[in-house]
Design a protein that fits this description.
By secondary structure, the protein is mostly beta strands. The protein contains 3 helices and 13 strands. A hairpin with a 4-residue loop joins strand 8 (110-113) and strand 9 (118-127).
């Protein structure tokens, strides 16, 4: 299932606030099992210029408390706040279920309708709390959000570089001018 190209990096987490005064910091892990973030070896920042080896020393609510070599005080920990942590895609295990996908594997796939008509390109996978959504940039240049469900996206063909979209009724209908503003007032 590993379809992403060599050199593709995946964001596995981000550094949060310092924890205490001795350089510990909170880490938001995006790994399936939060503690796994430390198992992939050194992580890098977004630019790939800095490397971090995490050592988990505890938990604080839904975050991990970690130590990073060379970060020995609160000021050094605070300077890293907001740093996103990346790992090379090929270091991640394959998905446990054939119905699970890494977001990075979906981004960039061609989106087609069931009859093969070009629809657009998957720009992102987002989740606002009610389930995953595919943000698709259509051929016309606008974007549409499609529920990432079996009904709305019946085919995910990573090897073929495409997804098939079966849009729910009303998704592709244009909103008459002026009604879009009215719907926001409700």
């Amino acid at each position: 299932m590993v379809q992403a190209g060599a050199g593709t990096r995946i964001c596995l987490g981000s550094i949060g606030a310092p924890h205490g005064v001795r350089g510990a910091l909170r880490v938001n892990s995006f790994a399936g099992h939060p503690e796994d973030i430390a198992a992939y070896g050194p992580l890098s920042d977004e630019a790939g210029t800095r490397r971090f080896t995490l050592r988990i020393v505890g938990r604080a609510k839904d975050q991990l408390v970690c130590r990073i070599e060379g970060v020995d005080d609160r000021d050094a920990a605070a300077a890293l706040r907001g740093t996103r942590l990346y790992v090379e895609r090929e270091l991640l295990p394959p998905a446990e279920d054939e119905e699970e996908f890494y977001h990075a594997d979906l981004v960039g796939l061609r989106a087609e309708l069931g009859d093969g008509t070009a629809f657009g390109t998957v720009l992102a996978v987002v989740n606002h709390g009610a389930g995953d959504l595919l943000d698709v940039v259509r051929e016309a240049g606008d974007s549409v959000t499609v529920p990432f469900t079996r009904a709305a996206v019946p085919v995910v063909d990573l090897a073929g570089g495409r997804v098939v979209i079966d849009p729910p009724p009303g998704l592709l209908e244009e909103v008459p001018e002026g009604e879009e503003e009215d719907s926001r007032d409700r």
